[in-house]
Design goal:
Largest sheet: none
Radius of gyration: 22 Å
Distance between the termini: 39 Å
Number of domains: 2
Structural class: mainly alpha
Order of helices and strands: HHH
Amino acid sequence: MKKIWRMELIAFAVLLFVFTDANRAYGDVFAAYIDPGTGSLIIQILLAALVGAGFGVKIFWTKIKTFFFKVFTKKRGGGGK
């Protein structure tokens, strides 16, 4: 599982570098702009990440709920219910 996160982090860093490369602005950093196609792509990536996270929570909801239930419930001693 850690390899997947590491690969995603590397891919994100590469994409971030490609989209923010100041040398592509031909010398003037303020002359660079994001065209509508790139802006649309960024919005699609963010929406896909949100939908993917929501789907992941939906799949593992029982495990997530059980984990937090165990963390936040107090153990009662004394043999009662």
